[in-house]
Amino acid sequence: MDRFYAGDLFEVESKMYTTAKILVLARSIITKEHFYLISIGSFEPWNERVITVDNRFERAWITPEELYYLAETDNVTYLGNINSYKESIARVLSPKSKVA
């Protein structure tokens, strides 16, 4: 793949951890587009690295090299887009009890 989009999932093997981590590519747009990786386990940023693009809404993707920069490694496996897993996620997260 030569382009990655917000919502794409990756498994990253990092020297910081003994197990691989699953990350999702996130994008926020205020005055510029900002791309960063978020941990699926904690919904926190993977690190402080960000790719910023000046052209709002004109470039909604990043390159593999930019992905490797964000992940701080090239040991990255593409898992698909989160939208392809939404039904499975909804089943797992189905309401168990009402919050008071």
What key phrases describe this protein's structure?
2 helices; globular; two-stranded antiparallel sheet; five-stranded antiparallel beta sheet; alpha+beta; single chain; 100 residues
Overview of the structural elements:
The protein has 100 residues and is an alpha+beta fold. The strands form two sheets. It has a five-stranded antiparallel beta sheet, with helices on one face. The chain is globular and about 45 Å long. It has helices at 64-71, 86-92; strands spanning 4-5, 8-12, 21-29, 33-39, 51-53, 61-62, 76-81.
Quaternary state of this entry equals single chain
Helix content bin: 10-25%
The total count of strands amounts to 7
Mean pLDDT: 88
Q: Which class do the helix and strand fractions yield? A: alpha+beta
In short:
With 100 residues, the protein is α+β, with helices and mostly antiparallel strands.
Topology:
Layout: E1 4-5, E2 8-12, E3 21-29, E4 33-39, E5 51-53, E6 61-62, H1 64-71, E7 76-81, H2 86-92
Antiparallel strand pairs: 1-6, 2-3, 2-7, 3-4, 4-5
